[in-house]
Write a structure and sequence with these properties.
This protein is α+β, with helices and mostly antiparallel strands and 220 residues long. Helix content is 44%, strand content 14%. The protein has 7 helices and 9 strands, in the order βββαβββββαααβααα. Strand 7 and strand 8 form a beta hairpin. Helix 1 packs parallel to helix 3 and helix 4 crosses helix 7. The N terminus is likely disordered.
Length: 220
């Protein structure tokens, strides 16, 4: 497993997350010594802190954080649900009706084996969907998945500029490899609704380079 790409939270302590969703209660503390869980927690806190600090730079109203269900086992009989439908294996989701984010442990492990950058992208992408749900419809792109990829790039770059997430040399190359590495047969990477690997990479880079405004449609 590559450890060359490493985004670390500058904060020393990550608090446990308690989530209530669909009748389930989940406690998801950082498992110190588990590198993947620590990276997931770092991504969650870094992206959330970016929006807490910068939401008003782009939008009206106020920002509220989505709930984080976190890792789930999509092969389990008691998998959590969104609108009564069990979350599936190989997927990462934002559930609009209940305003929570979750990612299948199998998906994360498979992606993480290609480099730790992958879990940052998954978290930031699903956070992008949570942001979309908070926007006026005029600010939502038709290609919602690619817009979420773009927002992911903007969030992570913004978090880096705020020094809540630290990028190291080789990050961009490893991230592109990670986007290409996971099977297109997985729900989370199906090109029929998410776009192909090249489209996803371009959308992410657009947000990385251009920031949040680069991810919004041109409006009169």
């Amino acid at each position: 497993m590559s450890r060359t790409f490493r985004m670390r939270l500058c904060a020393a302590v990550i608090a446990p997350i308690l989530v209530l969703s669909g009748g389930y209660a989940y406690a998801a503390p950082a498992k110190y010594g588990d590198p993947m869980q620590e990276d997931i927690d770092a991504a969650v806190q870094g992206v959330d802190e970016f929006w807490k600090k910068h939401w008003s730079d782009y939008f009206t109203e106020s920002y509220t954080s989505p709930q984080v269900l976190g890792l789930y086992d999509g092969t389990a009989a008691d998998a959590p649900t969104c609108d009564g439908v069990p979350l599936e294996a190989g997927n990462a989701v934002y559930c609009p009706s209940e305003d929570f984010l979750a990612w299948d442990v199998g998906l994360m492990k498979e992606g993480y084996a290609t480099g730790d950058s992958y879990v940052y992208f998954v978290v930031a992408h699903e956070w992008g969907h949570a942001i979309q749900s908070r926007l006026d419809v005029t600010l939502q792109e038709v290609s919602t998945e690619l817009q979420a990829d773009c927002i992911a790039g903007a969030e992570l770059q913004g978090a880096q500029e705020d020094e809540s997430i630290v990028f190291e040399e080789g990050d961009a190359a490893e991230l592109e490899q990670a986007i290409h590495s996971v099977s297109d047969q997985l729900p989370w990477t199906n090109p029929e609704d998410h776009g192909d690997a090249n489209q996803r990479t371009k959308a992410f880079v657009r947000g990385l380079n251009g920031g949040v405004n680069a991810c919004l449609p041109l409006t009169a």
